[in-house]
Amino acid sequence: MILRKLLPAAACIVSVWSFAQIRTGVYFSSDKQYREIIEDVGNPLPGKAVMIVKSFVPNFGSYIWFLNESKAKNPAYLTDTPKDLHAGIFLEDHGGLIPQITFKDFAKGLGQPRYLINSCEVGDVNDDGFPEFYLTYFEESDGLDAKPLKVIVYTSTGGKTLSKSKITAWIPFQEEDRYREVKDENFNGLPQKIKLKAEKILKEAKEGLK
């Protein structure tokens, strides 16, 4: 069973699932658990968390995934309120946080990255006892050039180390352009079940952009 996130409009609903004893909760700013996490460990990234995901993983510990937005640091003009994205997965340790891996992307000029919250997921599709974290975001921009839709997959490489893999769909906005997908070397080396899951997320996210 795979955890599926809810839109912020449904922030009053908290989803808690179990899979192979991995317990994961998804929290938004209106949730009591969201506020408790911030009070307990703070906010380790710039800006405000759009969503917080907490996963207890037996034999590894409790992981907290922050997906934050902050005011854009660079001049940006695509929207009235340009935002930078900051995300990170942290391991809880005696009331503190140990960084495991981080992500950031910035608004600039007529470009604006945005999370596709409905397509950010946590699951253990290859049944190895450690969850995969799927971060999905779209880079909006002005003009008719092809625009990237990305799924970043964070997985365990053994022990408590996380690795990053990425699949990118280039969405065409002109008839002469063709849809294409680009997979990095790490993605090609993922277990088949994880690759298929990421490709499914990408496909569904692409359909949601129409």
Main features:
mainly beta, 3 helices, 13 strands, 15% helix, 46% strand, disordered N terminus
Furnish the topology, listing elements before pairings:
Elements: E1 3-4, E2 15-19, E3 22-27, H1 32-41, E4 48-57, E5 61-71, E6 83-93, E7 96-105, E8 111-115, E9 121-123, E10 132-141, E11 147-156, E12 162-171, E13 180-183, H2 185-188, H3 192-208
Antiparallel strand pairs: 1-9, 2-3, 3-4, 4-5, 5-6, 6-7, 8-10, 9-10, 10-11, 11-12, 12-13
Describe the protein.
It is a single chain. The protein has three helices and 13 strands. Strands 1, 8, 9, 10, 11, 12 and 13 form a seven-stranded antiparallel β-sheet that branches. Strands 2-3-4-5-6-7 form a six-stranded antiparallel β-sheet, covered by helices on one side. The protein has about 210 residues and is mainly beta. The two termini are about 25 Å apart. The longest helix is centred in the last third of the chain and has 17 residues, at about 190-210. It is globular.
